[in-house]
Amino acid sequence: MIPIELAKLSFLQGISLGQNFLEGKIPEQIFEMKTLNRLLLAVNRLTGEISGAISNLQSLQYLDLHGNMLNGSIPRGIGKLDQLMLLDLSHNRLSGSVPGSAVSGLKNLQIYLNLASNMLVGSIPSELGALDMVQAIDISNNNLSGSIPPTLKGCKNLQFLNLSANMLSGQLPSGIFSTLDLLISLNMSYNQLHGEIPASLANLKQLISLDFSHNEFIGEIPKSLAKLTKLMHLNLSFNQLEGPVPDEGIFRSLDANSLQGNAALCGSKYFSSCKSRKHQFSKKALVIILVLAAVFVFLIVFFAIFVLKQRQRLHTRSKGETYLNGEASFAPILKKFTPTELETATGFFSDENLIGSSDLSTVYKGRLEGTGQAIAVKKLNLTQFPSESDKCFLTELKTLSHLKHRNLVRVLGYAWESEKLKALVLAFMENGNLESIIHRPEEVNNSARSWNLYERLRVCISIANGLVYMHSGYDVPIVHCDLKPSNVLLDEDWEAHVGDFGTCRMLGVHLPEESSNATSSAFQGTIGYLAPEFAYMRRVTTKVDVFSFGIVMIEFFTGKRPTGLTVEDGVALTLNHLVERALVQGMHAVLAILDHRMEVAGEVEKEKAMGVMQLALSCTLASPEDRPDMEQVLLSLVRLYDNKGA
């Protein structure tokens, strides 16, 4: 529990107790500490409501309570904290509406407002538009309804806006995009938005990521989206879009997943050619055909369900009946492959198709019979895991089946037989992994690539995007725990994808905190990339991944492995200490430790190289509280990438 004695420190300005195991309610006495400017209690087990007495903390600038089990409503008294620059109440159990009166009082909010992953209802308050200095707003993963308020155009400094996974409806107010010209990331996926995608999105010249997937948008894709030259990530899948796909800009390199679920699209390499519209059905004929088709589909679905029910009754008599309910929960999402299919695809798991191996698994390249699709099959080592691995495998696979992000390696399916076979079927990445790029370029396609500073930054942005999604884009934070270059894979367009996420957890290696085996050596991560609190105390928070990401950044930009020591002036230095020493010595020393294959030309690139090293070093600080979170890291990377050549 938080000791009430803290309140006796009458001149205390900051309380930072994040990422511990603190329980109980926040003591009422804390809200009488009128000199506090920082109250940071994130990632604990705090319960109860946020007291209305919080309005007494008139000097408060940073309030971070995310990652607890706080319930009740957002107190209106928060609106009296007019010095507040950061408010993060995400990943709790808060309910009720977002009080507009509270939002309107937060006019000094500059960094971000994060209310994601709660149980908030009602509409987005129009008062949100009064936050004209805020840089990021995240209200995703709630139960908000109604339309998007046009007053959002008042958030003129907004760079990140995430309203995904709600029940928002109506059309997008096109007028807001004329003033939000600093937006870098816009996510409105998994809502019920309809109407046409406004062409005014073309005003967002700084936009790097745009996700409108899983809505009800109609009409054609605006050709103006092709003019967004900085756009790196675009997802318009599962809408009701129609007509030709633009053939310029990002659409030239867009993969099929970003447009799937829009049956009426045409053109591009993923859809049939656009046909002439001279011979169209009348509306009446079209309605009749649609009704008949719907009846036909209903009958097929009814028959299929009947057959599946019959088969399920037969299966429940088998030895594996204990696990079938768990398997059924993700079976509609992921394809279940038979052992024979995977044996055929991989040449009976032949050594010729071996890609890599570890104590935990062996990975084979394969090609599916019939479709010819290239796949990677990760065959898990059954001898390494406890007897409960069947249950853990199914539970974690259910989670993995819902993790869908451009920068995570896509899970296509699985194969499972109790005590016989556990395997994941993954999308095959044509250009191998980042470890080979850094240390064995001769093994990689197009190894003559120069990999300049901006190309490396782009890879880092892709990795950071994937980690941000894992940390804050799902119901609960998911920590990778073993991020390293060999777990970063590159597709045919050299886009980075984080792989091996959750594999160890999937197999029960990440045991519950209450378990006496929680410190066992079943999973030790990888030496050189482990955060100190994880290596020595097995403390797992999202900051573990931040540390590993910082090491990966340093390794990518210096070409040096973190597992060796560099001797300078007779002193043995670790990789992050080498960077720290170079930053102290200045620009010349920093340039001297960079990868000699990476040309850094001009003062702008030299300054950016310094910025890269400073950011990477901040990620590897010994105390997890001192490290930035991945959202902050992503924002910094995007700024470094921005204005290239300026």
From TrEMBL:
CDD domains referenced in this protein's UniProt entry, alphabetically: STKc_IRAK
SMART domains linked: LRR_TYP, S_TKc
Major location category of this protein: membrane
EC number: 2.7.11.1
Keywords recorded for this protein, A-Z: ATP-binding, Cell membrane, Glycoprotein, Kinase, Leucine-rich repeat, Membrane, Nucleotide-binding, Phosphoprotein, Receptor, Repeat, Serine/threonine-protein kinase, Signal, Transferase, Transmembrane, Transmembrane helix
Protein kinase domain ranges (all copies): 349-640
Membrane topology of the entry: Single-pass membrane protein
Reactions listed under catalytic activity: L-seryl-[protein] + ATP = O-phospho-L-seryl-[protein] + ADP + H(+); L-threonyl-[protein] + ATP = O-phospho-L-threonyl-[protein] + ADP + H(+)
Gene3D superfamilies xrefs: Phosphorylase Kinase, domain 1, Ribonuclease Inhibitor, Transferase(Phosphotransferase) domain 1
Name of protein: non-specific serine/threonine protein kinase
Organism: Vanilla planifolia
